[in-house]
Write a structure and sequence with these properties.
Length: 668
């Protein structure tokens, strides 16, 4: 029954997407929303039932492979349309469907004034389906299918407001960068089949230790190719530039991409292929060091930019960097645990931010937001809880999960001590930028919109604007429309935010050192053969690490309070004193410009050269030459076909003479 429930997990979101998409003219808006919500909730329930079935099996039998049919069997390549159910895939299923269910419930109210309501929920259901294909895939070909579908679905959702040039460009940017990353995944799958004769997970992971020696160049090449796909999908350097632009989509889309689906795919891929990465420790170290660099650089950008959604987006880059460090150094359970807790508080932060941004008529500059503690008390409370969890405040879920990764790096010693130091610096920056948001938006005298909310309970937006261009938009494709009621008046939004706030607080109890490490025990059957399975800090070392992390979080919050409450003049002085550094961070370390210089502009130059030289002279010239030759030959033949009898007689004479000459020459 476990496999049956797992197949149903895939079926419900697909049915929901197709039903809404194909019957959009017949379905009322709210009915379409209810179908979308019900489909994901049903998938979550099936995921829970699959979990119960799996837990009923002995530890050594907690993996189920199920195939619907054989898709292809040619040249020794056998591909089944199948799934693989084990603790890791079920863990991801529950995170994806659970958080997505709450995002759908939130969206039901949040998107109610949007004219593309049906299209939105159809896309949203399809996105969840695509991610579930990715995490339940039983072989690398199915993984690639899910991987590609996630890329397409992200393009559709980021470009959802398709009349916005900024949105369509952001969607194309995300799609192109992810397709480039996909090439790495394709090459890895080809190399896996070439060396192991199979793409099935079970066969590949069983045969790999027999075929490859440690750090053999073939296995290193395979893992590096896998990392190219992982870096692109999870917005790690140097493929990170699409993530901030993805904020052009509706806030629920940002929440879904950043919390529960797309950006976590790379972390899942490394955890799933941990057997391969342990045979290629060089590649695993690359994953960890790239994650470290990403978390530090993203942290500096989040400290400098003023766009609320982009600050949260760069915090996602940073936290995914922690996860990459975790799975790269062998702390698989810690990395996956942080993936789960991050999904809770990051979805919460985006939901709270979305409510405030809507109240601000789509304006996202935190320097222009004030006084929302009184204007939106419920949203303010959830925003504070999310910020506490993100900053790793003692007792919050992020404290347990993030510090477990940091502590494992310190435990491994050697060069990993540098990672430990880097992650502690990143943790300090995280606490500062998290509470930079809080101290900018919530306290102080209310801004105009916040005061209107305090006085009236709602806010009127006659001319919604695009936050990227400040241009007035058609309400059909912009939001929030003419009138937007605050989140406290929308029961569905309030419910979703309350559940996520609760989980952001209590989820840490699943992994208390020395008490009951539920996540580690649950994932143990997946990672039991890992060389790191029995490597972990002692209980005392773990609590010492938690204490260090908690103190750093408190220090970061105190620094934020000093900078933005006690001495609000200091940030301006720092910007003037260190203007070059501030400019570098505000411009995102010139990542887009660097990509343009190294990739985009050279490719465009090659394209122009090919157009002007090769295509114009070789392709167009050859085509025109053949056409001209045909026209000339036709003209010559047309002159011969004059219709005059003497002309035909002359041709016959020449023909007879030619035949006579031919036979005369042959007789000599």
């Amino acid at each position: 029954m476990t496999a049956t429930w797992a197949w149903l997990v895939l079926l419900f979101p697909l049915l929901g997407s197709l039903t809404i998409g194909l019957t959009f003219k017949a379905l009322p808006d709210r009915t379409a929303g209810l179908i979308g919500v019900a489909a994901i909730v049903a998938a979550f329930v099936c995921g829970v039932l699959a979990l119960i079935g799996l837990q009923g099996e002995p530890s050594e039998s907690r993996h189920v492979a199920s195939s619907l049919w054989e898709y292809a069997n040619v040249g020794g390549l056998k591909i089944d349309l199948g799934i693989y159910v084990d603790p890791l895939s079920i863990f991801m299923v529950l995170v994806v469907t659970g958080v997505s269910s709450l995002i759908h419930i939130y969206s039901y109210s949040y998107m109610k004034s949007d004219q593309g309501y049906h299209r939105f929920f159809s896309y949203l259901n399809f996105f969840v389906f695509s991610m579930l294909v990715l995490v339940l895939a039983g072989n690398f070909v199915m993984l690639i299918v899910g991987w590609a579908l996630v890329g397409f679905a992200s393009y559709a959702l980021i470009s959802y407001w398709y009349r916005r040039n900024t949105a369509t460009k952001a969607g194309m940017k995300a799609f192109v960068i992810n397709v480039i990353g996909d090439i790495g995944l394709y090459i890895a799958a080809i190399l896996i089949f070439k060396n192991l004769g199979s793409v099935d997970y079970g066969t590949v992971f069983e045969k790999a230790p027999e075929v490859f020696s440690t750090n053999q160049w073939e296995i290193v090449a395979i893992c590096l190719c896998l990392l190219v796909g992982a870096f692109a999908k999870s917005a790690q350097m140097p493929f990170h530039t699409w993530l901030a632009d993805a904020m052009e989509g509706p806030t629920p889309v940002s929440s879904l991409i950043h919390a529960a689906t797309m950006v976590t795919a790379g972390v899942y891929l490394i955890a799933r292929c941990h057997t391969l990465f342990e045979l290629a420790p060089t590649a695993a170290d690359v994953a960890a060091f790239v994650g470290l660099a990403t978390l530090l650089i993203a942290g500096t950008i989040a400290l400098a930019v003023t766009d609320l959604k982009r600050i949260i987006a760069y915090s996602t880059m940073s936290q995914i960097g922690y996860m990459f460090v975790g799975v790269g150094i062998g702390a698989y359970s810690a990395g996956m645990f942080h993936l789960m807790t991050h999904a809770f508080f990051k979805a919460l932060l985006f939901m709270a931010a979305g409510s405030i941004i809507s109240a601000m008529a789509n304006m996202q500059d935190i320097d222009k937001m004030k006084g929302f503690r009184k204007a939106m008390p419920f949203t303010a409370a959830t925003l504070i809880i999310g910020a506490l969890a993100l900053s790793g405040f003692p007792g919050m879920s992020g404290w347990f999960s993030k510090d477990e990764i940091i502590d494992f790096a310190h435990f491994r010693r050697g060069m990993y001590d540098w990672m430990w130091v880097g992650m502690l610096i990143g943790a300090l920056m995280t606490a500062i930028y998290s509470f930079r948001i809080i101290f900018r938006i919530l306290p102080g005298p209310a801004c105009e919109e916040a005061q209107y909310l305090i006085d009236k309970g709602h806010v009127i937006h006659g001319e919604p604007k695009n936050p990227a261009t400040n241009e007035v938009e058609d309400t059909e494709v912009g939001y929030p429309g003419e009138e937007h009621h605050i989140a406290e008046q929308a029961g569905g939004m309030k419910f979703a935010m309350a559940i996520l706030a609760f989980l952001s607080i209590v989820a840490g109890v699943l992994q208390i050192p020395g008490v009951d490490e539920v996540v580690t025990k649950f994932l143990e059957p997946t990672f039991e053969n890992s060389v790191f399975a029995h490597m972990h800090p002692s209980t005392g070392e773990a609590w010492l690490g938690l204490t260090e992390g908690g103190l750093i979080s408190i220090a970061g919050i105190a620094i934020a309070w000093l900078l933005y409450i006690k001495r609000p003049d200091l940030p301006g002085k720092f910007r003037q004193r260190f203007s070059a550094i501030h400019t570098l961070c505000v411009n995102k370390w010139y990542g887009d410009e660097l990509v343009d210089f190294l990739v985009t502009n050279p490719v465009k130059a090659v394209g122009r050269f090919c157009n002007r030289v090769f295509e114009r002279f070789a392709i167009d010239g050859a085509t025109a030459g053949v056409a001209g030759l045909t026209r000339s030959a036709g003209a010559a033949v047309r002159d011969i076909q004059s219709g005059m009898l003497r002309g035909y007689a002359l041709l016959m004479l020449f023909g007879i003479l030619a035949i006579a000459v031919y036979f005369l020459i042959r007789s000599l």
